[in-house]
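User: Can you write out an input/output pair for a complex, sequences first and structure second?

Assistant: Here is one pair. Inputs:
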Amino acid sequence: MTVAALSRRRFLIGTAAAAGGFSLGFHLPFAAQAQEREAILPEVNAWVLIHPDDTVVIRIARSEMGQGTLTGLAQLVAEELECDWSKVTTEYPTPGESLRRNRIWGNFSTGGSRGIRESHEYVRQGGAAAREMLIAAAATLWKVPEAECSAASSIITHNPSGRSVTYGAVASLAAHMQPPADVRLKDPKVWKIAGKPLPRLDTRDKLTGKQVYGVDLQLPGMLNASIRACPVFGGKVASFDAAAVSGMPGVRKVVQVDETAVAVVADTWWQAHSALLALPIVWDEGPNENVTSQSIAEMLKEGLEAEDAVIGTRIGDVRTELAGDVKLVSATYSYPYQHHATMEPMNATALYTTERCEAWVPTQNGEASLSLVAEVSGLPIEQCDVHKLHLGGGFGRRGWHQEYLRQAVILAKAFPGSPVKLIWSREEDMLHGAYHPVTQCRLRAALNKNGEVTAFHMRISGQSILWPLRAEVRETGRDPAVFQGLNDGGSEGAFGYTISNLLIDHAMRNPPVPPGFWRGVNLNQNALYVECFVDELAHEAGIDPLEFRRKLLVDNPKHLAVLEAVAERVGWGKPAENGIHRGLAQIMGFGSYVAAAAEVSVTGGELRIHRIVAATDTGHIVNPAQAERQVEGSFAYGLSACLFGECTIDGGRVEQENFDTYEVMRMDQMPAVETILVPSGDFWGGVGEPTIAVAGPAVLNAVFAATGKRVRQLPLKNNSLAV
Amino acid sequence: MARLTINGEIRDIEVAPETPLLWALREQAGLTGTKFGCGIAQCGACTVLIDGVATRSCALPASAVGPDQQILTVEGLSNDATHPIQQAWLALDVPQCGYCQAGMIMAAAALLNSTPTPTDDDISAEITNICRCGTYNRVRAAIKLAAETMSASRKG
Ligand code: FES
Ligand code: FES
């Protein structure tokens, strides 16, 4: 079989096989791919391609990084398409192709738990339109009115005569049919494919080693690179001694990348990395060499009392009420920098010629990758493209901060015509994150004689993720993300508690450590502050924490419903087994309502988390089995953060360079997780992130119940408790 | 140059002796199912079996493995997911991003070699691989399921 023949066949099979094609080492320039596909495979519309053998290829613009969006989006298209689910495969269109077709696939960005909730409507419309075109094709063939035909499971039937034809047989004709002007989407109540707990479409290749991740990509003539950027934030390369390593095996070149980094390019990655480790580099550490965790904490602490702050929510008059004749409760919490620590380290592969630049990237935002490729290559965007690969974890890391891609393109420019794959070592990855930002929070509240909260002031001091990204945030000092879950109403993240005097404000303090979107974003810190402090208030008022929250949540029945669901399941109010203590938390974020109950024990200074009960109301659910996995996984992620997650800063750099010092949760620490899905049906909320936020506070409140001690400085491991 | 027996096949591999087995497998033998996660024997993504024992290949020089030692990678377990461990993983739809899963599966294979019916404590003690997506509870369930089917087929 020639390479061309192989490539053509491979291309027909979908994402996994297309990636397999890369690994076989062929590469077709994009235009040839498109022509080839058009010649062989009729595109019914942008979302749906159908082979003569009835195989359905559904195009997915969002990125799969483990969260199951690939399967969920395919279910939504397939539901409206009325196709046979067992014949469904998927592929990623490229961002370049999308751009050429007027962004026909919409937004590629995959973050903020938006994959499904923001595109469900247009992907379903895509599936429905394709179905109508297939029916129209069959009706044309039979010369009967379309209204006499119906479609189910990839078969079109002419109802009066009982004649039938499969999708595959009419797909090429359907491609020439007029797309319907508008389509009616099905009522989710009659869904047969969407809404069902179907297995993922991408599991098998992950069990055999066939799934090609970015680090696995092989292209003909490919070179490999390892890189070091100045470990001190804001530092630069002063000098390096290329001659010291240029004779090492396989080394092609030592390349300075921007002002900040040096890379070795070699035949294999291990050769490149070995030479990099041997390369003498002198850094100019720049202005931040004296920054420490301590100096950052001082900077934030000042913000806790600062006069100047941006108001997120203000109701009534908090200051007057707090100064009155009330019982005052106050507490200060702090939350450290944390790292995403995706299992697959950052990487990108680029191929540059003077006419064209292409990159292969595990990216959460293909369009952002494409503009970066164009910017760094200096070529018009039409001459660039990005091939997306499945991500070995994303968690927000691979959306907006794609320096590894920038570096890969710079390296590719040093080797025109040869693809260069850059893989960051774990150390490089840990030292150059886009860190879950540092914040502190001071909470003050007034309780009246009945134990009711009459005033509540929450002052957040700390870093803004959007400040480096958006001019208007720099101008106004207002970062809306800081108030996630604390908003006065709205469908994204509304504060659930009704308090007549409420003030939530933010003093922005931006230390020189780059912040980023981290699975759950600011909702994580905010939920921890609010839910632990509300637990403190309940205790001070001498009222059961569930009862206390019930009163405060009177106006927000959806917030309350998920809380009631976990309380009931965990057995709140009933005696627990000996030594077991419970805690609760709730929040709203990413459009969903979530709550958790934790059962823990503390014996001899050692904490064990035995059981988590989590409830989530996401409105609609596209795949309950995958939603459950996301909820479960979010406790591994959220509890890793709560128990261990901490990047400390010394000398202007992160001190933790690998998993030996950056601890994460492992099998023996993972509690049982029971997930309750309570979709109330009238909205679309996110799944991947929100439950992370309740993991920490539910456990910390249980720790208080067990020990009488409040953990207010995260992570928990710094509070003389072993896990 | 190293002579290695990988998935039952003797291969002469052109590699500097101190190269970690992981990179010899990935870059010279072309077996990329075994993953790079940390490089310091902390995460388990690079787990392979050597003579049936789970080994973190990122911290073991290729030259330390003798030609008679049997190296088994995920590709060698079965390349069509028919091995009972892969079948259990498939039945429970374990992977999320999947990056850690080859290492998990190989660690499970070693555990089931030495302990055909592992208890929860055995699993907690032996499976120390990191999964950032949080598949731990399903990995645990899949190991138990694989143990059941494997012991049934031994009896049968
Ligand atoms: S890569 Fe070998 S243990 Fe992490
Ligand atoms: S499945 Fe993603 S790291 Fe384990």
